[in-house]
Amino acid sequence: MDYNEMLKKARETMPEISISKSRFEVPEPNVANQGKKTVLLNFNKITEYIQRDTDDILKFLTRELATSAVIEGHKAVFTGKFSRKQIADKINRYVSMYVKCGECGRFETKLKKEDRITYMECMACGAKKPVIV
Ligand SMILES: [Zn+2]
């Protein structure tokens, strides 16, 4: 078997990579206004889907919306009135900053802390870059 044949053989036996999650669709935020508060009813579904720390995401959202929030069971309750779109925009922003790989555009990334610097590492292409959290 020559080199090219070996290469061909190796490719044939390689596991299919493209079956991994190529579409990334964060669940639509389910938002309800309750008086002066805004309740994000499916907060847990969203955090589970994007696989990031609940506190990190909540911290980001409250900072972006310039308000405070508490977690109540599966829900996040924000002080103030926000529309579904406002919340969705912030979640999308979080995803593009902390989940989407800037190199290959995929979403198989994780955050890693090293010497007080947080890095986003991509499982798909191996890119690693520091992010501000
Ligand atoms: Zn990547």
Major beta sheet summary? 4 strands, antiparallel
Can you list the strand order of the major beta sheet?
Answer: 1-2-4-3
Overall average pLDDT:
90
- Number of discrete helical segments: 4
User: What hetero molecules are in the model?
Assistant: zinc ion
* Shape designation: elongated
Q: What is the CATH T-level topology of the largest domain? A: Alpha-Beta Plaits
Structural domain tally: 2
Distance between the ends: 52 Å
Helix/strand/pairing category: alpha+beta
Q: What's the CATH architecture name of the largest domain?
A: 2-Layer Sandwich
Low-pLDDT residue spans:
16-20
Give, in order, the helices and strands.
Answer: HEEHHEEHEEE
Give the CATH class of the largest domain: Alpha Beta
Percent range of helical residues: 25-40%
Task: From the structure above, extract its key features.
Alpha-Beta Plaits, binds zinc ion, alpha+beta, single chain, 4-stranded antiparallel β-sheet, 133 residues, 4 helices, elongated
What features would you describe in this structure?
Residues 16-20 have low confidence and may be disordered. A hairpin with a 2-residue loop joins strand 3 and strand 4 (75-79). Helix content is 35%, strand content 25%. The protein has two domains: 26-99, Alpha-Beta Plaits (2-Layer Sandwich), CATH 3.30.70; 101-133. The strands form two sheets. The chain has a four-stranded antiparallel β-sheet with strand order 1-2-4-3, covered by helices on one side. Strands 5-6-7 form a three-stranded antiparallel β-sheet, with no helix packed on it. By secondary structure, it is α+β, with helices and mostly antiparallel strands. Zinc ion binds next to loops. Zinc ion binds at residues 101, 103-104, 106, 122, 124-125, 127.
